[in-house]
Amino acid sequence: MKVGIFGAGWVGLVTGSCLADLGHDVVIRDVVPEKVAALREGKVPFHEEDVPELLERNRDRLSFTLDAGEVADGADFLFVCVDTPPTHSGDADLSRVWTVIDELPPLEERTVLVMKSTVPVGTGEKVRAGLDARGLGNVGYVSNPEFLAEGRAVADFMNPDRIVIGAYEAADGDAVEALYDGVDSTVVRCDVNSAEMIKLAANAFLMTRISFINEIANVCELTGADVTKVAEGVGLDHRLGPHFLRAGIGYGGSCFPKDSLALKQLASNSGYHFQLLSAVIEVNELQKRRVIAKLQKHLGRLRGKHVALLGLAFKPHTDDMREAPSIVLASRLLAEGAEVTVWDPVAKPNELLKGVTARESPLEAVRGADAAVIVTEWPELRELASPETLEAMSGTLIVDGRNLLDPDEVRAAGFAYEGVGRSSSPVTALPASEEEPAPTT
Ligand code: UDX
Fold it and tell me: Per residue in 164-218, pLDDT tens?
């Protein structure tokens, strides 16, 4: 099949390279000339495992263009993989989707427009009407949301839990289903509105689990239970399952924060106050800030204190810092007057992290630090509680925002330990310079 893809971002490139690997001819179009030029030279603009190899392996079946006409020419399918960022109101900004529709040239043969971008429920109906208004009645419309997690997107595409296909015309849905020949998965066929809602509901449910276990963790801290054991015991109930029960400092990334706002807004615009989702979002915001209180508990006022933030990316195995807890933490620490050093193996401080100092290794980042905070559970940090770290730091506090380390081992190595939802080390005497009580965060 000939597949055209609008958008050479993360979703477009993963989708395009995987479809090429399944044997289809793929043309990917983007509006940014530098991006298209770099991709033609085989350079991938982000860190995502397996994508560079797939692009290289399928060079003959993949091309890149700036021209909307070229991508549509003779295409059996046109995938929409453009950004739908939140607007100031929290609604999804669909302007890039509409640009794609506006740019479609007249198409002689039947073509199916496949929506991969995450869009509010009801978008398909509007796009269908927009296509008809443009005289593009021969363009079919199918909602086929992506469920790709960063860092394992190619594996998710090739071995998905399900493929969701919502179509107006059954034949268009059949055609999209056939496009995935070679991918072994359950296919859910439904109407377009339901397909759109499946994506939003799945993400909202995953976020609900995270905020739920984070609140359980907060209660564990007050009652002396250990959330890692609680999650293990809860997750073995087959009705609940073990996934997305890792307590920590909250979710971030390009999808969850934006999609939760979009669903909340969608409900609100439709006349429904989605209370549970509002709480999920609020719990997540507060969860990031609890790290500051833990630092204050041990260090007193943070003015003039040196805190090392280890990990900038919103999760390991990606360089993506969108909505990363590191950004909130760095801003709060700088606002408190702390000195902040940071380390991440792939993500580099951006304009949102002005005022921090980047270091090349965890050891360099913690040198002279009063406290080290594990923000992202990079495997490199498993060995953090070493004699070298203890010697390099000027204090002894490790705040483990991801419960990456074993508290007993960390304490045995001479550190004070604060995890999330597990017993914390007793507070030793606060620094002598302490004059005023620490403000509450
Ligand atoms: C997510 C969904 O998994 C994917 O299906 C959707 O298409 C896009 O959003 P992604 O954002 O790449 O993918 O990351 P994911 O691995 O799902 O993690 C999201 C966030 O939740 C991260 O910040 C992670 O640290 C956090 N998380 C995840 C937890 O705090 N606890 C958990 O148990 C799981």
Answer: 999 999 999 999 999 999 999 999 999 999 999 999 999 999 999 999 999 999 9
On whether the pTM is more than 0.85, the answer is: yes
Give nearest CA residue, ligand 1 atom 15.
149
Alpha helices in 161-299 (DSSP H): 170-179, 192-223, 227-235, 256-269, 275-299
Burial of 143 per CB tally in 10 Å (0-12, 13-18, 19+): buried
Choose the catalytic residue: 18, 81, 220, 255: 255
| Maximum mean pLDDT: which of 231-245, 253-267, 347-361 | 231-245
Alpha-helical segments (H) within 309-406:
325-335, 362-366, 387-392
Residue range 285-299: mean pLDDT, rounded: 97
Distance in Å, CA 315 to ligand 1 centroid: 8
Q: What is the DSSP letter of 134?
A: T
Which amino acid is present at 338? A
HSE on the CB side for 426, CA within 13 Å? Answer: 2
Instruction: Answer yes or no: 220 catalytic.
Output: no
Q: How far apart are CA 389 and CA 364, in angstroms?
A: 9
Domain 2-190: assigned CATH number: 3.40.50.720
Which H/E stretch holds residue 169?
none
pLDDT tens digits along 53-80? 999 999 999 999 999 999 999 999 999 9
- Could you please state the CATH topology (level 3) that the domain comprising 191-441 is classified under: Rossmann fold (3.40.50)
163 in ligand 1 pocket by Cβ < 6 Å?
A: no
Residue listed under structure tokens 């606060």 = 430
Q: β-strand 162-167 against 139-143: which pairing, if any? A: antiparallel
Q: Which residues contact 200 (CB under 8 A, 6 or more apart)?
A: 118, 120, 121, 259, 262, 263, 266
**Each residue's pLDDT tens digit, 296-341:** 999 999 999 999 999 999 999 888 999 999 999 999 999 999 999 9
| pLDDT score of 433 | 55
Location of each CATH 3.40.50.720 domain in the chain: 2-190, 191-441
**CB 96 less than 6 A from any atom of ligand 1:** no
